[in-house]
Amino acid sequence: MNNCRASIPACCTDCHMTQRLTVLGIETSCDETAAAVIERTPGGPGRILSSLVLSQVSDHRPYGGVVPEIAARSHIANLDGLISHALEESGCQLHDLDGIAATAGPGLLGGLLVGLTTAKALALAADLPLIAVNHLEGHALTPGLTHGLRPPYLLLLISGGHTQLLAVKAVGQYIRYGTTIDDALGEAFDKVAKLLGLGYPGGALVEKLAATGDSDRFHFPRPLLNRDACHFSFSGLKTAVRQAVDDLGSLAPADKADVCASFQEAIADVLIDRTTRAMVLFARHFPTVRHQVLVVAGGVAANAYIKSALAGLCRNRGFSLNIPEPSLCTDNGAIIAWAGAERLAQGMIDDLDVSARARWPLDLDAAPAPGAGVKA
Question: Which terminus of the chain, N or C, has less C-beta within 10 A?
Fold first, then answer.
């Protein structure tokens, strides 16, 4: 196992680029405590040596959403043990690693501080490089771990906290084409599920009911459809669902199924429209890329109806569709470890005084989306 240590200057990346790297990844940005060990193989996909995720869904379900203080306390109680188990399962000890990666943002600040502080302590104790990872970059680079896919490619990130379209140019280099100006897509699914009394988390429950419903019964709006930009808005759609539910009064099972099917179809139409426009921009910005790829990441990427709609779009537009397996689309330590390994390979390491950030856009130069406020 390679032991290319932090004593090698960050600017001297040749040995990192051409040798294997083994990295521990820590993820505590929301309500999953996760740790993983991966091995980066130059020129090919990576290898997951261990990946453990401790979900807090049962802790937050009574509140219908994530409670930040409960999440942070759970990370404190469970992270050390989870890291120990991840190292044991991988067959590695700290001195076998080449770096420690941890999510430093965006996310819930209390949870981020738990994971990042733990990573700093381990890096200091073992004299290893620290890599502070942007959680969104973890999702953006996942196809390198799973398929050896290298940029540039187009990314549709659809999760509980984020909805964005970006061009992935290289590690650390992104062009944001569109973002949500209000709710994230996963957030919209959860809110519709709550309106219908389906429970939390709601995305999978909405999808399941939608499969038995009539998508033509309710004509919900398609926010920002046919607009030139690639931004998203879901609050108006959510309001339309609320109005339909209020008009129905008492809801029969068939009513709930029809609402879910109509809502899901509206979402798919919006995603197709926005992504089509991003594909045009991507082709314009990267005219020499012959094999164009759309990567879809984030928890909502597991939705089979949305997958099917995007697969049809890709066939029509000459793109290949790449969606990581569901366990790598939700929050986990493996994608953080991989992003850390990719950054480490290029000498991108961080000082121990690096700070956690509740908000941290991938494209720091992107202009604010109109009306988005801090979500831009």
Answer: N
